[in-house]
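Q: Here's a chain of 179 amino acids. Please give me its 3D structure as tokens.
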Amino acid sequence: MNNQTIEGAAVNDGKNLQTLTLHSEAETQALAQRLAALPLSGSVWLAGDLGAGKTTLTRYWLQALGHIGAVKSPTYTLVEPYSIEQKDGSIKPVYHADLYRLQDPEELSFIGFDEYLDEDNALVIIEWASRADSYLPSPAMFIDMTQSNSDDDKKSRHVVIRLSKSGQAQGLDLTSLKI
């Protein structure tokens, strides 16, 4: 991974916190590639309004991890599982969850969601995790996305990425996310 910057992206440096403004889909893809390069396991909570770019970021992230093929939105299935072969031949289990339609956090126990969170080396990317925050363990990372309110820059996204204590304990460093 090179350390090239992407033109136009504003960054607030920090080991445990990064604030970025993404002005294009290409910049979203570049962020996903940098996220994929992190030695991350556990869960990541994606927050943001409808249309903020959570699913797009996740699609690019899965592709950057090595997934080949379609990436389905888990809006109706709650979870889409992926077994992604790594360069060293190992398999990285990745689960993309969308809890937007979740009625009660207890539903997660009925579908065995705990098993995803307990799986060694698994990455669980959860959209709308706030709908089950009383049920879910603390994530390794929080990603909050918002659309620009400016009429002349509707495509830009404001992204705040923050490590939790468990993410810090994994030794993660967000300075590599510079875009």
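Q: Can you summarize the key feature?
A: The first strand starts at residue 10 and ends at 12.
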